[in-house]
Amino acid sequence: MAEEIIISNHLTKEEKYKQLLPQIASLIEHEPDLIANLANCCAALHFTFNFWWTGFYLVKNNELVLGPFQGPIACTRIKKGKGVCGAAWENSKTLIVPDVNSFPGHISCSSESKSEIVVPFYDENQQVAAVLDIDSNQYSNFDQTDAKYLENICTLFRFRF
To answer: What is the pTM of this model?
Structure first.
């Protein structure tokens, strides 16, 4: 098991993701507990990229329930279709929001959040089982590079839900 994540600070965003992906895979490979794996994945992403908020919401009883996260306190439950997380869940697709204040129905857990990306996790039946939610305190902080690699990270969990 990996005991630490090693990423150079002098790399581009894409290079950091390329180094991080196999390290997360190694980190979760032999640990059967989903929450432990989500917690370590969350910490690895949060500290590698210095995100404002990084966390997971798990689908439970037809709503998203807060799971492991790094950052300030967060909304505990989100209805399907509500906010960026609920919209990503409802539409079953990654959403990149350059300015959260312009997103209809945005749920503001913190006024510091300026941009957001939400990536769905799928179970073995191709149903959304969780979402990865990352917020930045900078506008337009996320792009297709983030989407590509975060989606790849989420696929590491496909048969773990």
So the answer is: 0.94
Quickly tell me which residue has 């507990």 as its tokens.
33
The answer to whether 103 touches 76, Cβ cutoff 8 Å, is no
- Rounded Cα distance between 69 and 21, Å, is 18
Query: Which CATH superfamily, name and number, covers 13-155?
Result: GAF domain (3.30.450.40)
| Residue type at position 11 | L
- Residue 112 contacts by C-beta under 8 Å, 6 or more apart in sequence? 52, 72, 137
Using the predicted structure, report yes or no on whether residue 70 has a pLDDT greater than 90: yes
Residue spans of the domains in the chain: they are: 13-155
Nearest-10 Cα torsion for 92, 94, 98, 99: 30
Burial class (CB in 10 A: 0-12, 13-18, 19+), 90: middle
